[in-house]
Amino acid sequence: MAVNVENNEDLARYNQDIAPTTQEQRQWSLYNYLSLWIGMAHNIPTYLMAGGFIVLGLNWWEAILTVFVGNMIVLVPILLNAHPGTKYGIPFPVLARASFGVVGAGIPAFLRALVGAGWFGIETAIGGQAIQTFLLMIIPGWAHFSDVFSFVGMNLGGWISFLLFWLMNVWIIYHGIQAVRRFEAWAGPLVLLLGIGLLIWALNAAHGFGPLLQRPATVHGTAFWAVEIPALTSVVGFWATLSLNIPDFTRFAKSQQAQEWGQAIGLPLTMTIFSGIGVLVTSATIVVFHHAISDPITLLGHFHNVVILIIALGAVVVATLSVNVAANIVSPAYDLIQLFPKHLNFARGGLITGILGIVMVPWLLISNPHIYIFTWLDVYSGFLGPIAAILIADYWVFRRRTLEVIQLYEASGQYYYKNGYNPLAIWALAAGILVSLIGKVVPPLVWLFNYSWFVGFAVSFGVYLVLMNAKYHNPTPSREMPSSHLSH
Length: 488
Known about the structure:
Blueprint: H1 30-41, H2 44-55, H3 60-88, H4 92-100, H5 106-138, H6 142-146, E1 150-151, E2 154-155, H7 156-173, H8 177-205, H9 222-238, H10 240-245, H11 247-250, H12 256-289, H13 296-300, H14 306-328, H15 330-339, H16 346-359, H17 362-365, H18 369-398, H19 423-437, H20 446-450, H21 452-472
Helix pairs in contact: 1-8, 1-12, 1-14, 2-3, 2-12, 3-9, 3-12, 3-18, 4-5, 4-18, 5-7, 5-14, 5-15, 5-16, 5-18, 7-14, 7-16, 8-12, 8-14, 9-18, 15-16, 18-19, 18-21, 19-21
Subcellular location: Membrane
InterPro entries: NCS1, Pur-cyt_permease, Uracil/uridine/allantoin_perm
Membrane topology: Multi-pass membrane protein
């Protein structure tokens, strides 16, 4: 559904990279969405997640079940926000204009971009570690050369490896969104083969899957729920980012069925399988090495066959590159375009995301696994849950799936609200963030923080609908709200 820009000087927030997709651009099939999720879900943080839950006291099947349930929950907002992307061909920052205002959409876009840049930096640090491990194994003297100086907590070898992986990401993004589609189509299955290979090794080396499967849970009753709820919130928070910006991908879908079935199969199934692989392989390392090795890059460092090591580390690099490009560059690039539509395009937005990922010194963040996996996920869940709620409440309940597309790009009309901002959406967002995160600083309310995504979602969803219906007195806004003479 293309926007006719001829003789329309009112399209102040228009940019070709965030324009509605044409029929020719809609090439993504069910397989593309399936491989997209395989590529994004099969990554190092997924591998580590279930192992982290076991450290907290869950047994192996409780940890894997938590991953499955959490992904089934987050699949709901993902599919709900995916629908307008396919129906109207618009990305997340443009969809957000319907509820936050043509200019005000910059608020959720900026918050999403910051989280995406943080994740980009984290995944780039992980990919850099894999390259560093590879260089240490194949280049004599690399350890001595790379340790000559340290800057901001990382030595020269670490910086070289980090920047090499950083450049790989930027190279792909500079070739456009269709390059992402082509890369994900073959990268996803390759990553799955790596996981299966590790699983076969674990079964043979340990003559089974080790003692971890016989280990009982160490938390029960009230103590169990004190662990389970934050863990479940962390799983939901893991893909809370994609629950917002999934329209960035579904705008290229051939049909609603293609994206719905591709995602419904791809997300929960692949996340659960790869988390299970992480638990089983970690259990086997106890037998083989007499201590648990939960980091697959560290585990690969124990292999002495150079050919196997090269193949395995190459797969780790591809795995990390796969999730980083799709989940952590594409969407922040679109988000930044929302802020500066006249000056940024897709490639420039991706480059800025990459620079922000360096500035956020992610290698220091992942040096503490507890902060990395739990505090990081739960805190930003308190920001992103409310945004998802407002988008869903506006599109599915308030507007009943009806948008006037061209007005999403205009400096007038029903989505311009007050100077481009919808104050009611901003109030609803602030209420959700406040209630979801207050437990982080007020100990008696810590239970609210443990449910941060759920609490923030519920509060913002209710507040937004109450305020909007009170002001416009009608759940079908086109009858009450100011409207332009233009339509899609």
